[in-house]
Amino acid sequence: MGFSSVLSRIAISRKLLSSNPTNRSISLLSSLLFSSHVDSDTKKAENGSLPSSSAAYHVSSGGYMRGTVFWESDRPLTIEEFHMPRPKAGEVLIKTKACGVCHSDLHVIKGEIPFSSPCVIGHEITGEVVEHGPLTDRKITERYPVGSRVVGAFIMPCGNCFFCSKGHDDLCEDFFAYNRAKGTLYDGETRLFLRNSGKPVYMYSMGGLAEYCVVPAYGLCVLPKSLPYTESAILGCAVFTAYGAMRHAAEVCPGDSVAVIGIGGVGSSCLQIARAFGASEVIAVDIQNDKLQKAKTLGATHTVNAMEEDAVERVKEITGGSGVDIAVEALGKPQTFLQCIQSVRDGGKAVMIGLAKAGAVGEVDINRLVRRKVKVIGSYGARARQDLPKLVKLAETGIFNLSSAVSQKYKFEEGNKAFQDLNQGKIISRGVVEIS
Question: What's the whole-model pTM score?
Answer without folding.
Answer: 0.84
